[in-house]
Amino acid sequence: MRSRSGSGVRLDRILFMVEQTIFSHQNPITALFANQKDFPGHAWIRDNVFIAQALWALYRAYMKCADFDEDLTKAKELGFTCVKMMQSILECMMRQADKVELFKKFQRPLDALHSKYAVDTKSTVCGDADWGHLQMDAISLYLLTLAQITASGLQVVRNFDEVAFIQNLVYYIETGYRTPDYGVWERGDKTNQGIRELNATSIGMVKAALQALNDVGDLFVDGSRGSVVHVLPDEIEQCSAMLSSMLPRESFSKETDAALLGIISYPAFCVEDPDLVTQTRETITERLMGKYGCRRFMRDGYKTVLEDASRLYYNKSELQQFEDIECEWPIFFCYLILDAMYSKDDDAVEAYWQQLESVLVYSDKGFRLVPELYVVGREHVAAEKSHPGTQVREPGGATPFLWAQSLYVIVCLLYEGFLLPAELDPLSRRLSVYEKRPPCEVQVTVLAESADVQRELRAHDIHVQRVDEIDPVFTILPASALGHLLAKIGESKKLNLSGRPLDRPIGLLSTSRLYQIGNKFVIFTPQFMDSRRSHLMYDIRILTDEWSSELQYIYASWNSVSISGRPLVVLVVTQGMLSTEGLSHFSNIHLNRYMKSTVIGAIKKINTGYLSGARVVMKDLSDFFRTTAVSKIEFRDKSAEEMLQSVAAEKVQFTLHTEDLNEGKSEKMASPRGSRTLRRGESVKDRSAYSLVHKASMRHRSIALDSNDADLVQLRLAYNSRPSSLVDTGSPQSPPQTRPLELVKEHSSGELRQQLLKTTKKGSDNKTAHGALKSEQMHEMKADDLLDLLNETTVLEEQISIIHCLWMKYGPDYDTELGCQHITVRMLTEEVHAKACEAREWALVRLTAGLLKKQLEELSKAVTHLLVRQKQITVGIASKKEEVITCPKTNEELEKIMNRAYGDDPNSFTLAQEIIVYLGSLVRTEPKLFLEMFRLRIGLIVQVLASELARLRHLSGGEAADTLLTVSPFELKSMIFSLLSGRLLEEYAEDGFQHSEAMRDTRTGIGSFRRQIEERKSLRKSTRSVGGMEIPMEEDEEDEGPEEDDFQFGIWLRHRRIDGALNRVPNGFYAILWDTVHKMPHGVKINDTILHWGLTQEMTRKEIKFALEVEEALNRIAEPEYREIIVEALWLLGRLEKLVLLDQPTVPRDRPLDVDAILRVANQIFVEHNKTLETIVTECCASETPNKTRCDGARGICKHFYDSAPAGEYGTSHYIIRALMQLFS
User: Fold this and answer.
1) What is the structure's pLDDT at 509?
2) What topology does it adopt in the membrane (predicted)?
């Protein structure tokens, strides 16, 4: 008889260890494992999946190293056991299919799949609310392992019902990047109070599972397309963005976590950035590693001797007592060894192997066991705290710990050479961090909607196909049709499961590939091309700017989502984008013509091959057929043709339809007050009555602002009537017809009704003064009087003012009985809103949209884009009525938040949404602009925009707010980009785009800027004009020109105002402030809010929860420039010892350190110093009578102090340091 080889004997020894240490805990019927003493009979999904991985590794080792047939027999047995385990876990989850369906729709934690089941019955072991069941990482780990095992040739999934359930699990986890859960340790927030968090480990596992299922192909291992699981690449990209912004942090309450080793290396391999992988690994080893393993996270009290075992939760104040005595977990040596093996670092492998061997526990039979953790004994606590890492620890918890023992088996197989690391990664996920592919060019096909559009483009030397000219094998559908198709994928009547929820958006990457459905190749146009969009799309420049930013996003993101083939984007150009024909003559014809040139310019730019740095190729559709990514969709219960027909009812509608309607319908209108023929250009006859109405409307159009800024004092009454330049400048001979944009529907019957109001002019010539309006006068106006006024006028602005008053006085559901029909005020508002959109009267658009509470379709996506990149948002009036958005919300939740914040402010309701949408767009394409920002306060951004407009155009506060409301969406986005990029706004053309010079300036795309910041100086010279005071100038200085003057003074004040509004802080600011608070026995006082010393006991130095506390205090400051100067003072406080040259500064022991007092002292030193220098400060705060001449700087601080550079002999830092030395020396 042949003797076994040495390797075979060693492999048998490992199998024998597995049989004695792991198999002894297995249930023979269900094949599930359980060994927790505190929870007998409980089988955790996570533990069982890792055991399955160990058995799979043994199976592969025996298949590879088999000496005899009996070795193959062992291999088959191990394979069957592994498959049975995976099937049992799947069955446990399938028994809760109803929960999957509910969770898909509502994401409620009580609807989550359970994280553990009964080992003998596969049923639940506790109630929905009795455990932290919502653990995205556990479900994702199962799906990842399923994909890897399937790719190796073992079939786990047996029928199409299981395929449908796996598809629904994909829908279950695909929102993981925005679903707070309890995390890998099942506790959520580290206080263990049941607070869910967004955890990087969960998001990483979700990303890995989605990528693996996308790569594995079919689950039946036979090439059948019916068993393919469909994954949307946009969800993968969202996870990537979230991880990039979070790592090496784990969550809000954990600044890092040793479990992150499982996502940067085996088994997830989900981080492609090698620098981020290295940074995360080094952070874990430096902060968490000890002699016996790694601590899970800082201040982890689990199973320490100081933990109160009688209660589950911790008091916040007791967390600090766990510091330096946290239990150490040997399992993380296994993770570190696997990480070193995959990164081919042999020295690290050997070092960690020796450390692991030193902490193993030996059983009675001599088997090596990995204990759950090592704990510091009570008698050693004090010594360990004073000298961390010096005391002996004892094993605690379960021994063996099945999760750790499984990983130890895998480590042994690799260390002994039975397997290569690549053999445990058949999907080659490990290579993503090492193999970098160059960005993939974006293929673009432009199609003309009609022959007229095609001719128009050909006239500009742009040759494109019409939609009806493409090859019949192609079908073009809108993105919403793809949503309906996905709603059918994963359906199972037996399990009562539907497909993907229809309310989830279809991302851009998902519509950038071909879909093969039956014999057809279907192309879905991007979602931003759908016609059911907001008023933003009436500004064609926003649409073309979105073309640019979306193509740039695809170019940057495509390679990271593991799709073979190139992206394809189909853009359909419609008549409305090019032609001014068919628009009412009260539209801005000049603007329309300019927009037409914008569309043509954008297409020409795409045709050059580069667009905003992205490589693009523009050809006909058929030219891209062989290079485009293709996804095949099959339906088992219906033919592909039937499915296509059902979704083809979603007719392709592209932005801005301009088809002519029957204009004769609205020539006459009957009224309860008698019929009359509407004539062109009629305005209200009774000007005194209309003046009353107009005043009432104007008083309720204000955007609420709050600041001590001199530019903004007048901004309470924010709306003045527009100058006559807004009145239609068309020729008097213009034809008298009007084109109804939209027919208003009867709510009861749904029948189309004729246009209710005839509108022939968009502006009003009246110059009504906006004086105070007595409420008694308003109450005297009867509904009949208002409706008579409405019947008299055909001027759009007058119509909106009258309807606005009807809305305020009688409500939106008041029946006006116009035309002897049921016509409510809301229906009239809908009609004038549509006309205002067509006329591109943005102030009127925003007012009517706000009254109707119209929510921008893009809002929820924009909020998600910001939040997944760790940018929180506040809406409402700064420091008074702000609401914070800290996690992604549904449309319904956002609607409630916006109503609470802007319920009585329709203009701000719309303006705030627009700003959030633009920020969400910019954060994807220009993420560097958002560095050093943690929370974006929309109220302050609105204030600063108005302030900048007041400065640029020399306007009063009221005029500035008026101008802000009339700015087009594209200009508003350009202004926000300018603010974010740290540059000052360039002035926009006052009179639209009627002059070629203005067209040239604005055509640069994102606005032009006068100077870079570094080219400007902030010098206080007593011979210059500052703050509006005229000072005589020397002749040689006058030669420098007024423009130079205008941009030198006030520059630092404006920068501080902008940075304060954007909540910018220096890098490492929160950690340095933590150190400061830790030194102060009574904490630090900011604006009457105290950051008490106890916060440093609850939270660690780099914990996001501490940053949130700081932001909460800073956000109570209404003036952005004062907030910024506070941040500068706090930054200098962090270097107190170096500044005052004392090791132990005399910090206050009986009261909090008052930062506001430090600034007051610094301001006083500044004023006194400038008094001796006889600078311009002597004309305000340093004068002989300061009470009379004091300037209007925020919080009593001299405005010239705000306008000083931070550094230098006369900089703010100089005076703050002197104040600190005076207080602490």
Assistant:
1) 92
2) Lipid-anchor
Tell me, rounded to whole angstroms, the distance of Cα 29 from its chain centroid: 47
Amino acid at 323: E
How far is 62 from 82, CA to CA, in rounded Å? 14
Q: Residues 153, 221: contact at Cβ < 8 Å? A: yes
Per-residue buried b or exposed e for 1119-1135, using 16+ beta carbons within 10 Å of the residue's own CB: bbbbbbbbbbbbbbbbe
DSSP letter (8 states) at residue 165? H
Give Cβ neighbours of residue 297 (< 8 Å, ≥ 6 apart). 190, 250, 254, 255, 256, 257, 258, 288, 326
- Answer yes or no: are the C-beta atoms of 1107 and 1071 closer than 8 Å: no
Q: Which two tokens stand for residue 215?
A: 């790569």
Range 400-430 burial, b when 16+ CB lie within 10 A, else e: bbbbbbbbbbbbbbbbeebbeeebbbbbebb
Mutual angle of helices 796-810 and 687-699, in 10-degree steps? 70
Q: Dmax over Cα atoms in the chain, in whole Å?
A: 117
Amino acid at 573: V
Phi, psi of 1094 (to 5 degrees): -60, -25
Q: Measured between alpha carbons, how far is 571 from 525 in angstroms, rounded to an integer?
A: 7
Distance CA 653, CA 632 (A): 25
User: What is the CA angle 1184-1190-1196, rounded to 5?
Assistant: 130
- The encoded tokens of residue 232 equal 């949307």
Q: How far is CA 511 from CA 93, 446, 481, 548, 571, in A?
A: 31, 15, 11, 16, 11
Rounded CA-CA distance 277/269 in Å is 10
For 1053, 1205, 1221, the CA distances from 1208, given in Å and listed in that order, are 16, 7, 17
CA 42 to chain CA mean position, Å:
38
Structure tokens at 773: 């309006």
Q: Provide the β-strand partners of residue 395.
A: 374
CB-based contact 707:822 (threshold 8 Å): no
What is the C-alpha separation between 470 and 514, in angstroms, rounded?
A: 14
* Tokens 């991302």, residue located: 507
Distance separating alpha carbons of residues 936 and 588, to the nearest angstrom = 34
Q: Which amino acid is at 1154?
A: D
Pair 854, 534: CB distance under 8 Å: yes
C-alpha distance from residue 1093 to each of 1082, 1099, 1108, 1115 (Å): 6, 11, 16, 20
SS (H, E, C) 390-429: CCCEEEECCCCCHHHHHHHHHHHHHHCCCCCHHHHCCCCH
Tokens 């190796």, located at residue = 152
Percent helix, strand, coil in the chain (nearest 5)?
50, 10, 40
Who's near 383: CB < 8 A, 6+ residues apart? 390, 391
Pairing of strands 373-376, 393-396: antiparallel
Q: Is the distance from CB of 443 to CB of 571 less than 8 angstroms?
A: no
Cα radius of gyration rounded to whole Å, the chain: 34
pLDDT at residue 50, as a whole number: 96
> Could you tell me the pTM of the whole model?
0.83
Q: Cα 32 to chain center, whole Å?
A: 40
Look up tokens 């027909």; give the residue: 645
CB–CB of 465/476 below 8 Å?
Answer: no
3-state SS class at 712:
helix
> CA 796 to CA 265: how far, in whole Å?
63
- Gap between the Cα atoms of 438 and 431, Å rounded: 15
pLDDT of residue 588: 46
Return the amino acid letter for 1020: R
Count other C-beta atoms under 10 Å from residue 1112's C-beta. Answer: 13
Q: Which residues pair with 568 in a beta bridge?
A: 443
Ranges of the chain whose pLDDT falls below 50? 1-3, 580-589, 651-681, 706-754, 764-778, 987-1047
Closest CA to 937 of 886, 877, 997: 877
